[in-house]
Automatic annotation (TrEMBL):
Domain of life, source organism: Bacteria
Signal peptide per UniProt: none
Molecular function in Gene Ontology: DNA binding
Classification via Pfam families: HTH_3 (PF01381)
CDD domains noted in UniProt: HTH_XRE
Domain HTH cro/C1-type: 10-63
Protein name per UniProt: Helix-turn-helix protein
Amino acid sequence: MTNLTLGTLIKIEKDKIGWTSTQLAEKLNISRQWLCDIEAGRGTPSLELLSKLDDIFPKAQIFQTYKKSIR
């Protein structure tokens, strides 16, 4: 999964397990709107949020994808 934005990767992983944005936002303890902003590239997630995403989607390597996108 190279050249994917962080938001796209989150959407793909969320869809793989059949979760809505609301369900994922609840798991992350953030608002659905904030999650949608991150997915659309309008928000920058905290390191804590990236860590939570890695815990939920361990095979996706979300933190590594994010690091590459900010270089």
